[in-house]
Amino acid sequence: MKTYTSLSEAITDLSKNGYTANFSIKNNYIECTEHNINLQPDEFEIDEVHRFQEMSDVDDESVLYAVSSTKHDIKGLLVNAFSIYADEDSAELVAKLSQHIN
Question: Please, what are the averages of pLDDT over each run of 10 residues along the chain (102 residues)?
């Protein structure tokens, strides 16, 4: 897996490799509004994970997930704050995302 120096560099490179959809976290799934697709935890794989910390603020960390779903034939990116999940997020979704952050 390639190492990136910034979040924007990673997004640009992964987009060139087909990760073009934009995902966001909802209560118990991730969604891609431009394709009107909701992916349950068992419908997608996390292909890559990259963590970034802003040098100016050690509390400002982001995680970039490269996500794919063969069921829906889609690849995209999900950016989230590190280790911060809302209380309403499903345990299954949080567990799937968290297992890839070490």
Answer: 91 97 90 95 93 65 92 94 53 72 56
Order of strands, edge to edge, in the sheet holding 21-25? Answer: 37-39, 30-32, 21-25, 74-81, 61-69, 45-53
Residue 83 burial (C-beta neighbours within 10 Å; 0-12, 13-18, 19+): exposed
CA distances from 30 to 39, 50, 71, 97 (A): 5, 18, 14, 11
pTM of the model: 0.81
Strands 61-69 and 74-81, bridge-based pairing: antiparallel
Pairing mode, strands 21-25 and 74-81? parallel
User: What does the pLDDT read at residue 67?
Assistant: 95
Please say whether the beta carbons of 92 and 37 come within 8 A: no
Judge contact between 11 and 66, C-beta under 8 A: no
Structure tokens belonging to residue 69: 């779903």
